[in-house]
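Following up on my earlier thread - several people asked me to post the actual chain instead of describing it. Fair enough. Here it is, all 275 residues.
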Amino acid sequence: MPPSDTETTKADEREVIIRASDVTVRFGSKTILEGLSLDVRRGEILGFVGASGTGKSVLLRTILGLNQKQSGTIEVFGIDYERADEVERLSVEQRWGVLFQQGALFSSLTVLENIQVPMREYLDISPKLMEELARLKIDLVGLAPDAAEKYPSELSGGMIKRAALARALALDPDIVFLDEPTSGLDPIGAADFDELIMTLRDTLGLTVYMVTHDLDSLFQACDRIAVLGKKKVLVEGPLQTMLDNDDPWVKSYFHGKRARYVVPKEDNPYYDGNE
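Reply from S.P.:
Thanks for posting it. Predicted structure:
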């Protein structure tokens, strides 16, 4: 259900932990993002949506410092990552986790070893403690204990997503970035994954930045949605803001034939009287 006006007001008062201001990204002569601004608030699940090729993953990778921007600023936890020194960068990197679209697990490592990769890079702990923590993450994402010794080639699509999420949670981050987390999953598996994300947000206090095309995820899991188009954020806000927006693409996306939110005909401003 969309948040109430009271819930929206409370959300607006939350701390901003990612702030993109007037960001422009070009690849050669092609401008992908131009003058884009977006805030992500602590404790929310933000769904980031847009037509294919508009730059959703480009912005995600730019926030992570994997793409170079031409202008603007991006602050994460109040730190401008691009201008930060090595110590500041490490402090930021340990507070985020990333689930890439295809999981990006190392094929030569077991699930347990994959989850331990960030721990080995950033933590100075014993192998025994590292294994215990990794097994806790496996349990946290709903995988069976015996998944620890399996290789990615032995996992189903849903298990790969959960294993990759466990790795994203390895350092107990404050924010997780999810790039198309339900792509390739059947409807039941996708719904279960959405439930898992909402549960983890509520129990761990996570902030979730989710790039997605999945209408069910947008309608069921997201507190707020941001729509990318024309190289910037066209509209942002709770679900009702999307439903009320007159932009042709937004209107088509949220009121089209595949829309998940059923609006009574008499309350639907886009109902034209035809069945």
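The radius of gyration is 19 Å. That should answer part of your original question.
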